[in-house]
């Protein structure tokens, strides 16, 4: 007989040996065999349970992460739609007034603007720093270049449109003029 | 022997009977017994698996429902903070102007207001109907009463502060004056 044999063959052989030696009726041997199978099945069922538990735990962990991300950026869509409102406010407030009536109106509008800024800030909206800082392609979009030797190369010379981020996520980059 | 005995006792007895009758060696009987136990254990493991699968499915279903609700009302906190901004806009726009400059400014403010209204409407914010409709405690808060015999009893006579809902959820009820 070859020295190399697989486990099943070995088992088969052991079973036959028992049968020959003990001369027990065939049914008992079958029951012993059934026990081996049953034990295998127990192990299989336990393995399935372990795997399913692991899947469940992974799923729960993923759900928690998703939920946290959804929560963090929950206001993103409405804030994105509000950016043009902030732009319009800035434009309206930049108007030069000639009468007291108009000046008082602009003052009122400025208060409304501040209330809105407060509300969106509370939700995590922040204006991106631009003028005077080093150009950063993650936050700034260069739409013009100029050469100003009195300032460092690569610095933002002027902000043409304000950029905004929601927490660590850029909603709209600042449109800027950069020093060559 | 007593007629009342627990299951374990009964089992024990059956095992002993088999041993006596068949006169097999003790080990084999033990193996047969082990098989019964193994089969029980298989059933138990399968039960555990079925229960865990059911738990997993329920969890997934709950997560989906939670996610849908979170998504539906995701803008609630920022919109709630924006309600005073809408109030301030209405107040600013109600001002009577005497000069052309002021009138033109108010026109600009009105445009900013409309942009903001558009943004929050897109997210599901709606003004609650009040004046002229029947008082509904789910949407209206009665802060004043008056008797106007020319109108139906229980009808909203005047809206003192606008109410808003986010989809089917009231963010702030309308403050109203009701007909007695």
Automatic annotation (TrEMBL), chains A, B:
GO MF terms on file? adenyl-nucleotide exchange factor activity; protein homodimerization activity; protein-folding chaperone binding; unfolded protein binding
Which keywords does this Swiss-Prot/TrEMBL entry list?
A: Chaperone, Cytoplasm, Stress response
Q: Which superkingdom, per the lineage?
A: Bacteria
Kindly list the places in or outside the cell where this protein is found, as annotated in its UniProt entry: Cytoplasm
List, in alphabetical order, the GO biological process terms annotated in this UniProt record: protein folding
Ranges for region Disordered = 1-27
Q: What's one Pfam family the UniProt record gives for this protein? A: GrpE
Q: Which InterPro entries does this chain map to?
A: GrpE, GrpE_CC, GrpE_head
Which Gene3D superfamilies does the protein's record reference? Answer: 3.90.20.20, Head domain of nucleotide exchange factor GrpE (2.30.22.10)
One of the record's GO cellular component terms: cytoplasm
Q: Which family does it belong to?
A: Belongs to the GrpE family.
Subunit annotation: Homodimer.
Matching NCBIfam families, A to Z? PRK14140.1
Q: What is this protein called?
A: Protein GrpE
- Give the source species: Psychrobacillus psychrotolerans
Chain's gene name: grpE
């Amino acid at each position: 007989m070859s020295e190399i044999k697989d486990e099943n063959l070995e088992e088969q052989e052991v079973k036959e040996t028992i049968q020959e030696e003990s001369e027990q009726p065939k049914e008992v041997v079958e029951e012993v065999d059934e026990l081996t199978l049953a034990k295998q099945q127990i192990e299989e069922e336990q393995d399935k349970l372990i795997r399913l538990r692991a899947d469940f735990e992974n799923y729960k962990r993923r759900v928690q992460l998703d939920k946290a991300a959804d929560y963090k950026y929950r206001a993103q869509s409405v804030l994105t739609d509000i950016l043009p409102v902030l732009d319009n406010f800035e434009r309206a407030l930049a108007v030069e007034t000639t009468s007291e009536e108009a000046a008082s109106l602009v003052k009122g509008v400025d208060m409304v603007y501040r209330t809105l800024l407060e509300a969106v800030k509370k939700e995590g909206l922040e204006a991106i720093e631009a003028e005077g800082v080093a150009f950063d392609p993650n936050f700034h979009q260069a739409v013009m270049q100029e050469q100003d030797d009195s300032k460092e190369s690569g610095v933002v010379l002027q902000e043409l449109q304000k950029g905004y981020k929601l927490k660590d996520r850029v909603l709209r980059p600042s449109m800027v003029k950069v020093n060559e």
